[in-house]
Amino acid sequence: MTMRLLLSLSFLAFLGFSSSAQVISHRSLGNSLDNLVRWNTVYSEGHTGFSLSDLDSGEALYGYNAERYFVPASNVKLLTFFVAQQMLGEEAPAVFYRAHGDTTDIWGTGYPLLLHPSFYAHDTLGGWLADRRGHLVYHIPAGEEVPRYGAGWSWDDYNYGYVYERSALPVYGNRLYLDFRPEAVDGEVSGLFGSPPTVAAALIQNARQPRAISRREGSNQFTVGRNFYHPGNFPLERSLSVSPEFTVEQLDAAFPDVAVSLGDAPRPPRATLQQVTTPLPDTLLRKMLQVSDNFLAEQLILLAATERYGWPDEETFFSYLTDTLFVDMQLGEIRYADGSGLSRYNLVKPRQFTQLLTALDRAVGRDRLLDLLPTGGVNGTLEKRFDNRPEPYVWAKTGSLSGVICVSGLLRSRSGRWLSFSFLHNNVMVSPSAYYHEMENTLGWVYDNL
């Protein structure tokens, strides 16, 4: 046998061994993750899906129920973030207007930062309105009023601090914001303060009320209980009941140099209107993703719809997203019903989230994406989660509803490999902490071994 033939046979044998080793490696990965996910007794009574992919190549590494649909809760905000980046980029229309004489007519766009207590430094529209003089008419044409709740929302969540009504021109973030200083700090007067001022100043004490603060549905009259003034309750945010009349009242009080009234003039063609353009700061996106702010997510969808159609036509916009944008991305069919994930009508597959995260990584840039997402063991909704390794290794969006626990995001392994993952759990009957413990075990194993 010639030396050349021996070398050829040796090389072929090496290739066969390498191929066999790769198959065994994939099989070993599948077996290990099967033990952690598929055969996990904590997950056994619910419905679990998991998808794991290489972030740089997009290669699917493991899937369990990865092609089944789940209610994803606030993981939907990853879709909303992608939509905002694709449709809006770095700026958006804050308001459309037409000035004639001493009158300025305005039409809303969904802009969420006007007088918002968390965004005073970024409120472009507030500064513009402060410079107005004369008469301001806020128009809501027939058929354009934004539904206050999204499709599939639970109406009786209004008394909590995570469901806020939507509108074409929100004021104060459509929320009551309260803070309390029991003692003077740096010479400031102690006591209760908040916004909108007219609502914050009209609280009614009710010592027999068990809740710290509550309101009747459809009203902005808040009653507070005996233990309301405990410092641990503050800062406090609760949803307001929003109407065009309420918006006009608040604008009239906040901008005394203009007389504000309500109108219903049809929206003129966009080309005939002027607009106030506002930047979309990462501060806004970070709050939506890290704190899981439902209000900002919903208003971003309205803004994006306005950018496309000239008014916040969310129904047509959702149809466009599911029938065109996501199809062009080859995500497959998604049921996308709201921007925040409060709706149980949303249905997404784990595989679709890992594919979406790969698209976000390329469109947004990894460093920026990591900065915007919650970091395990560090901040946001993951501040006390995924802290079971000596360094941060998970950056992800959480999602929760009654019976729903979801986490989708990026993972950096000990070897430096970047992965995308999506854990979706529905029909959960046990403590969320038990599920998070098991997810930490799984993703910790991925960190150690990939």
Primary descriptors:
450 residues; alpha+beta; five-stranded antiparallel β-sheet; 33% helix; 22% strand
State the end-to-end distance: 42 Å
Radius of gyration: 26 Å
| SSE ordering | HEEHEEHEEEHEEEEHEEHHHHHEEEH
Strand order of the largest sheet: 2-1-16-15-14
Strand content: 15-25%
Number of helices: 11
Kindly state the number of beta strands. 16
What form results from the Cα inertia axes?
Answer: globular
GO molecular function, one term: serine-type carboxypeptidase activity
Keywords: Hydrolase, Signal
Family: Belongs to the peptidase S13 family.
Protein name: D-alanyl-D-alanine carboxypeptidase
Describe this structure in words.
It is a single chain. With 450 residues, the chain is an alpha+beta fold. The chain has two domains: 190 residues, DD-peptidase/beta-lactamase superfamily (Beta-lactamase); 228 residues, no CATH class. The protein is built from eleven helices and 16 strands. The strands form four sheets. A five-stranded antiparallel β-sheet has the order 2-1-16-15-14, with helices on both faces. Strands 12-5-4-3-13 form a five-stranded mixed β-sheet. A three-stranded antiparallel β-sheet has the order 7-6-11. Helix 2 runs parallel beside helix 7, helix 2 packs parallel to helix 9 and helix 9 packs across helix 10.
